[in-house]
Here is the input.
Amino acid sequence: DGGITQSPKYLFRKEGQNVTLSCEQNLNHDAMYWYRQDPGQGLRLIYYSQIVNDFQKGDIAEGYSVSREKKESFPLTVTSAQKNPTAFYLCASSIQGGTYNEQFFGPGTRLTVL
Amino acid sequence: QKEVEQDPGPLSVPEGAIVSLNCTYSNSAFQYFMWYRQYSRKGPELLMYTYSSGNKEDGRFTAQVDKSSKYISLFIRDSQPSDSATYLCAPRGYSGGGADGLTFGKGTHLIIQP
Here is the structure.
């Protein structure tokens, strides 16, 4: 089955720790994205990548870092500099050049800072 | 003024009712309009998309765009309990064929009462 997988489903972090969220896709999509969702806030764009070894900051990139070494993978690191990291994190992918930029989403990772 | 405004609800209606979900936006460059549906604790999925002003129907769902008033609507006829979800609007402009992040509304939480 083609799709996007995210792991882990739930993640607990102590304050001051960095954690990395995994995102893998087998849809052969060039573009990948990370969003954060907070209650009552909708989805906000953290980072996106249109091609391997290249990525751009989104609206709320501070305290986060990403890498794109492989087409299939786009891991997100939540660093200790992120002041309020507790949220639901969603990874998505899309083709390049599509009119509507339909994005396919993974099931999400719920991060809780203890 | 935020780029995309959407009433978070919750909106609770009885089964079989016609539901109207709405968004307003401020960026006149938006040309493509998408609605995503998100079930609780899941990733969003694309429900419908339209281009420019006008209506588009797909089964029980109708998407309507009025660019002159920057107003987007999604109508659900004969609503079912399975329609209970959060509905997010996502308008976008032309990106020259590239893939960039979407701007989402906060989402409206819809509850269909059996």
The two ends of chain A are 35 Å apart (CA to CA).
